[in-house]
Amino acid sequence: MVFAVRCPNPSCQKFMLVEDHQKGKVVPCLLCKTAIRVAKGPGDPPEKKSPAKK
Which residue of 19, 21, 25, 54 has the fewest CB atoms within a 10 Å radius of its CB? Predict the structure, then answer.
């Protein structure tokens, strides 16, 4: 199954289709190559990065 994600880059905002196996992964925008973290499920917010350990 495929679903749409939107590029977070304010100057791009392109919608693109991603597949189920890409859930929870980072994919590049097809137009501007900005990294897009794909949500794990419908309505799930993208994961936040953990703070770096010192």
Answer: 54
Nearest alpha-carbon partner for 17 in 28, 30, 7, 3: 3
18-45 pLDDT, tens digit per residue, is 998 999 999 999 999 999 999 876 555 5
Residue 26 CA to residue 42 CA, distance in Å, equals: 16
| Tokens standing for residue 41 | 């499920």
Residue with tokens 């703070």: 51
Question: Could you tell me the residue ranges of all domains in the chain?
Answer: 2-37
